[in-house]
Design brief:
Allosteric enzyme that catalyzes the rate-limiting step in glycogen catabolism, the phosphorolytic cleavage of glycogen to produce glucose-1-phosphate, and plays a central role in maintaining cellular and organismal glucose homeostasis. The protein is of the alpha/beta class. The strands form six sheets. A nine-stranded mixed sheet has the order 7-10-11-4-1-12-13-17-18. A six-stranded parallel sheet has the order 21-20-19-22-23-24, with helices on both faces. A three-stranded antiparallel sheet has the order 14-16-15. The structure holds ligand GP0.
């Protein structure tokens, strides 16, 4: 072997500062093609990413090979969204080479933090659901579980949000524009996926009735693999994302001019399939392209899973022992019909056997009870786009309804609720019902949510299958959300209890005994202050607003949604503003209200609330009479990278959804882990957070889910009465309606006021207002006592260990998937 080549190969593995430095210089020249003098920050990012990538490839292959050789049971996490964010910091930290990399760059005269900033934020998701999938990837790899993520390689991730005159405007987010150093294209991993066409019936070799799907359009799914580095770098799993490719048959040279151009156009249209992520969070658009995206990635993933299985097996009997497939919401639920089709039509498995295999293989996570988010595809669309699947769904349905208890009891109303087809109006396929029926386990994402699932959406299915529903309370990865995002606090924690918490977050409990230690409190505050300074600088850069670092940072960051009630928060801000102006001599606790979040482009009410927050901010921030005691900021373009700056800097965490509506929340966990106190309703995982951190260390207010339910059932709520009896609420609403915040357009907020009054205030903003204001007052009062506040903040951090996604993922592994850790075998690494 060429000596120079050989030495380079060793270099690619070296983890010390010199080796890294030499690799950087070599990569810059030979792969990025730049001279050190001409290199931009982005060039350096690509250089460093490629050099880091080198250092994980061996162990990635070892991991994959070990799974293969042991024929280990794998878990496949099918998700239409993976909100992974940047990967450089994460890869360095999980490989344990952050310091070496920093020093190597130092020697070249570069700062790692600047290089990191050049990486685009991979936003292949909308919010909580997509971020949960990303945390799960991190946890599976860190727990040495043989886990694969499967999804779509969208060319355009979630739109970039800007504010123009206070209104949200969407711009395309082009994360792939300059190339993606983390992904490995696999042009040979290519599966055909079909649409449209028709079904032909025929007799098979033994004379049985059989079906084939003919005259269909064909798209190819091409794989792109991204390594997922577990903590410690031992296990490196795979995230496989599919990209649409037109079949190549159009490319033959026999076209005339016109036909050629048409063929190229057709190719572009076909490849639109994986072009863009749908930006709706928790609402379903009923768009054909969306259905095609769902089927596209699901079908490709299943074909890939079966191919891998067949490397070791010659029939499908043990598929459930070798593969667990988790459906992240109903988006991939068509996979149930698709696996049936593949087994029955393509592999000749009998129906009943195929159904047993399918059910034993799949499990399903529900993420919301909101009716508008429950996917239901028009039968006519499904018949056209996926004709064979429609037949299979009918067949599953007929067999199920025939055997169901409801039928035995002659309960037709219940039978029609259990049906996979909603027969009211234009007929629709209920994907939640399909997912439930085709899975052996169905889980909710917090204790309360799971309970409500049993009582509401899946009450009838729960009666049929009382063992199927189970709870898996969400979690977050401590690597990204504490170790990487919050270096000051992470270092402080490690200085006291060692670094075992990064891998086993339950160890963080040991901090609880430090809550009474004055020195520790001081250091805890210092870490928080450092993070607040960083956020203040970010706010100034992004919005031009100067905020006081020592003010109470009151943070609400999440998608803009009426049920999440950013409106409640901004109304309280207006009330506080009025109080401050009325009582200028009182010494107020300075408060900074920090909002961030995107609205779905078609969600007019959410966009109007954005405009309201910006309008209120403008008035308040420029009013000298509040003496800078109140500032309001709405940060643009909330994403994972912004969250990494915001979470560590928060004092107060707003989790104020209408009780019963937020399935879990995960931002609530990130904030509490970073030492914020929660102000929240008894909704989603807030209930469990209260149990863990203790009720003295959280501000709970508002109606409970049960009370909300009773209130709605009795219909006995008149928001106008509530408003009339609360002067500060009335005043705030009057200011909005008279154009105090929108002098250029006094009627701008009419729809909001309308919703709160004649509209019946569906989200109970007025009903919870007064209780919320009291809780806010309690928070401000406590903040005056910095010692007491810090004590509670420490207790929050110390008691959040259970909310690690490692705990969540191990519960899935043992209680749903039956998959076990597999330690990768590394061949002895020779140095010669
Ligand atoms: C739920 F149904 N969630 C959906 C959806 O379409 N998108 C989405 O992000 C969220 C829930 O709203 C959640 O409560 C939950 O924690 C998360 O899924 C993960 O389970 C808040 O983000």
């Amino acid at each position: 072997m060429d000596a120079r080549y050989k030495s380079r190969e060793i270099e690619r593995r070296s983890l010390d500062v010199d080796g890294l430095k030499r690799s950087f210089l070599e990569w810059l020249v030979y792969s990025v093609g730049k001279d050190a003098r001409a290199a931009t920050r982005r060039d350096w990012f690509h250089t460093v990413a490629l050099a880091v990538r080198d250092r994980l490839v061996d162990r990635w292959m070892d991991t994959t090979r070990t799974y293969y050789q042991q024929d280990a049971k794998r878990v496949y996490y099918l998700s239409l969204e993976f909100l992974i964010g940047r990967l450089l910091t994460n890869s360095l930290a999980n490989l344990g080479i952050t310091d070496q990399c920093r020093q190597a760059l130092d020697r070249i005269g570069l700062n790692l933090d600047d290089v990191v900033e050049a990486e685009p934020d991979a936003a292949l998701g909308n919010g909580g659901l997509g971020r949960l999938a990303a945390c799960f990837l991190d946890s599976m790899a860190s727990e040495a579980l043989p886990g694969y993520g499967y999804g779509i390689r969208y060319e355009f991730g979630l739109f970039e949000q800007r504010f123009e005159h206070g209104w949200q405007v969407e711009y395309p987010e082009q994360w792939l524009q300059f190339g993606n150093p983390w992904e490995f294209p696999r042009p040979e991993v290519l599966y055909p996926v079909q649409f449209y066409g028709r079904v032909e019936e025929f007799r098979d070799s033994v004379g049985e009735r059989a079906y084939r799907w003919v005259d269909a359009e064909r798209v190819l799914a091409m794989a792109y693999d991204t390594p997922v580095v577990g903590y410690g770098g031992d296990t490196i799993n795979t995230l496989r994302l599919w990209s649409a490719r037109a079949t190549r048959d159009f490319n033959f040279g026999h076209f005339n001019d016109g036909a050629y151009m048409k063929a190229v156009e057709q190719k572009v249209l076909t490849e639109n399939l994986s072009r863009v992520l749908y930006p709706n969070d928790a609402t379903e658009g009923g768009k054909e392209l969306r259905l095609k995206q769902e089927y596209f990635f699901t079908s490709a993933s299943l074909q890939d899973i079966l191919r891998r299985y067949l490397q070791h097996h010659s029939n499908f009997d043990s598929l459930p022992d070798k593969a667990a497939i988790q459906l992240n919401d109903t988006h991939p639920a068509i996979g149930i019909a698709e696996l049936m089709r593949l087994l029955v039509d393509q592999h000749g498995v009998t129906w009943d056997k195929a159904w047993d295999i399918t059910r034993a293989t799949f499990s399903y996570t529900n993420h919301t009870l909101l009716p508008e988010a429950l996917e239901a595809w028009p039968v006519r669309m499904m018949e056209r786009v996926l004709p064979r699947h429609m037949q299979i769904i009918y067949e599953i349905n007929a067999k199920f309804l025939n055997r169901s208890k409801a039928r035995a009891a002659g309960d037709n109303a219940r039978l029609s609720r259990l049906s996979l087809i909603d027969e009211r109006g234009d007929r629709r396929v209920r994907m939640g019902n399909l997912a439930f029926l085709g899975s052996h386990k169905v889980n909710g994402v917090s204790a309360l949510h799971t309970e409500l699932m049993k009582q509401t959406v899946f009450a009838d299915f729960h009666a049929e299958f009382p063992e199927r529903i189970n709870n898996k309370t969400n979690g977050i990865t401590p690597r990204r959300w504490l170790h990487q995002a919050n270096p000051p606090l992470a270092a402080l924690i490690t200085s006291r209890i060692g670094n075992g918490w990064i891998k086993d977050l339950s160890q963080i409990k040991a901090l609880a005994e430090k809550a009474d230690d004055l020195v520790f409190r001081e250091e805890f505050r210092r870490a928080k202050r450092k993070n607040k300074k960083r956020l203040a600088a970010y706010i100034a850069r992004q919005t031009g607003v100067d905020v006081q670092v020592d003010s109470l940072f009151d943070v609400q960051v999440k998608r803009m949604h009426e049920y999440k009630r950013q409106l409640l928060n901004i109304l309280q801000a207006i009330a506080l503003y009025n109080e401050m102006r009325d009582n200028p001599t009182v010494s107020w606790v300075p408060v900074t209200k920090i909002f961030a979040g995107k609205a779905a482009p078609s969600y007019h009410m959410a966009k109007l609330i954005i405009k309201l927050i910006n309008d209120v901010a403008k008035v308040v921030n420029h009013d000298p009479s509040v003496h800078d005691n109140l500032k309001i900021v709405l940060l643009p373009n909330y994403n994972v990278t912004a969250a990494e700056i915001i979470m560590p800097a928060a004092d107060l965490s707003e989790q104020i959804s209408t009780a019963g509506m937020e399935a879990s929340g995960t931002g609530n966990m990130k904030l509490a882990l970073n030492g914020a106190l929660t102000i929240g309703t008894l909704d989603g995982a807030n209930v469990e957070i209260r149990e863990h951190v203790g009720e003295d260390n959280i501000f709970i207010f508002g109606l409970t889910a049960e009370e909300v339910n009773d209130l709605r059932a009795s219909g006995g709520f008149n928001p106008r009465d509530v408003i009339a009896s609360n002067p500060s609420l009335k005043r705030a609403l009057d200011m909005i309606s008279t154009g105090v915040f929108s002098p250029d357009d006094p009627h701008r907020y009419h729809p909001i006021l309308q919703a709160l009054t004649d509209g019946g205030d569906h989200f109970l903003v007025t009903a919870d207002f007064s209780d919320y204001c009291q809780a806010q007052q309690a928070a401000m009062d406590l903040y005056r006592d910095q010692e007491e506040w810090t004590r509670k903040a420490i207790l929050n951090t110390a008691n959040m260990g259970w909310f690690s996604s490692d705990r969540t993922i191990m519960e899935y592994a043992t209680e749903i998937w039956d998959v076990h850790p597999v330690k990768p075998e590394h061949p002895a690494e020779t140095e010669t």
